[in-house]
């Protein structure tokens, strides 16, 4: 074949106008088999034809003879078309390469992964642009609409519906709080999410909401808006309006998956949590008064010679506690475990009482399943509405402060009981002192979702610091490797994102390195506490990866059997 070469789902054509129709017919065959019909099919084929015709015309105009590769990925219910062509073809992801360009953004450059605004919004569900080496690749994705239903949450045809009983509280230009009647939790919303939530009227689809979003905030990829809508649906604030109907069995239909989802989302809150915290604050609120906080700081600094500057004493305490633990047949360990759980409740209660002290409302207080562990929690979402960031910091710091204070009390009690030769009591107090001391240190590491992270986020006054840092670091590295423009942000944000993102990578590496070195025999086992906390974080990271994999698998199973 001189002009075209077809291999099942793969077509190679020369840049000639006569081949545009052949390529369109080739894609049409697979699109029909994938379930596309009527207007959906016509719009998708129009987008594919426009793209291939543009590549051919630019190739002819510039005397380029490189072949155009068209690969079809047909699935039941949706199809993906990858068009690969020479990087010499002067087509870039700018508006000026589209005849019906947007009047509001003439000549506006946007990220390589999103291009031709009208094409993405009007004709296809998803579009991606990549350039590697001497090749450019454009990918179009289109989903069938059986009975007007979309096939995925990101679909621009989705018509989201606001759940009944949703209450929106605006607390500033950038922050809002959403509560749902009958649901104890409250949710913090960014100004972008608040805009989307207000734009949902049960009539607008995601395509129309996306247009409004672009007019308000400027050009973004449609999947950004889709992702925020998906997050609102996950939280139960929005309902999808349309749901996918799968012909075959999906993961969501299995009893095992329902059990796993319930387990991963397990959460129990006591009835009337705000009333309970108000009761505690009324009679025990003095424990979190400014005077007691000052006393706590004095106690902590006076105990530094035990817990910080004299680390050998710490190892001695832990060693004696371990020895007594083995001799007492686990009695010390069981008592310490009971006391530790009591203190975890006290830790969360500290957050709640301080939030109540500043006028906030407690929406939930109880236990949940977190990274494989049963943990206590307190929903102090109202603290995000405090105009003073120092009040928000104090709410976050109340927990770690209680850990350090109680740790110091246990440390002094250990010394007292040791001098009185009361080994059992000394062992329990020593073990609790060490556990709470390390627990407070770990809880102040700001590179995970800890109290330290929220404290740092409020100090810098940058919400979603971790997510923004990772995104900026990724874009920063891509700008170096691919010589792309960097996002235009303030120097404060740039510095914060780079430092936080870089140190996060180093922190994760430092946590993962000791277990890896020991497993491969490159290093002897470190001391018990370093080994314990390293393994603890490895388990957390492994569970996080497993959760992401589970969500990906669940999403993948919503598509049907591949046809090719």
UniProtKB/TrEMBL annotation:
* One Pfam family matching this protein: Peptidase_M50
TM helices/strands, residue ranges: 286-309, 321-346, 358-381, 393-412, 424-448, 495-517, 529-550
Does the record bear Membrane in its keywords? yes
Highest taxon above the source species = Bacteria
> Is Transmembrane helix among this UniProt entry's keywords?
yes
Alphabetized, the UniProt keywords read:
Membrane, Transmembrane, Transmembrane helix
For membrane topology, the record states: Multi-pass membrane protein
List the subcellular locations: Membrane
- Chief location of this protein within or outside the cell: membrane
Any single Gene Ontology cellular-component annotation: membrane
Q: Which cofactor does it need?
A: Zn(2+)
Name the GO terms of the biological process aspect. Answer: proteolysis
Please state every residue range assigned to the domain named Peptidase M50: 337-416
Protein family: Belongs to the peptidase M50B family.
Identify this protein by name.
Answer: Peptidase M50 domain-containing protein
